[in-house]
Amino acid sequence: FRRVLFRSVAATLLAWVGIYHVFDATQGFCAYVLRCYRVATLTLLIYGVMLWGVGLLGGYQLAYRGLASSGPMQHPAAFWIAAAIAVAITAALFTALLLAVSRRWQPRSPA
């Protein structure tokens, strides 16, 4: 019985980890390209709010307190769900920011 339960929990976590990594790759790429455009402070602020605020605090809320009418999940997947949502929003914000910055960018002429 314990093996079946372990496999079930592991399968659930692996699914959320996979989703997380797709968005993590996107935001990581965008963050590094944004640094090439010298956009670092805004990315730091977005990281702070999304990963610590939505990811960590959201995971705590889902795991131990619940949301609205649903009770606490009391499952490690709660933290991965919140982290995946946070990193997905971060990836979307970084992608939009990268598109805006790259459209406005003018290369410097050599002096």
Strand-residue fraction? under 5%
Principal-axis shape: elongated
First-last Cα distance: 72 Å
| Rg measurement, Å | 18 Å
Number of E-state strands: 0
Roughly what percent helix?
A: over 70%
- Low-confidence parts lasting 5 or more residues at pLDDT below 50? none
Number of helices: 3
Residue-averaged pLDDT, rounded?
Answer: 91
Structural category:
mainly alpha
H and E order = HHH
Biggest sheet architecture = none
Structure description:
With 111 residues, this protein is an all-alpha fold. Helix content is 79%, strand content 0%. It has 3 helices and no strands. Helix 1 packs parallel to helix 3 (77-104) and helix 2 runs antiparallel to helix 3 (77-104). It is elongated. The N and C termini lie far apart (72 Å). The relative contact order is 0.16.
Short description:
The chain is built from three helices and no strands. The chain is an all-alpha fold and 111 residues long. It is elongated and about 70 Å long.
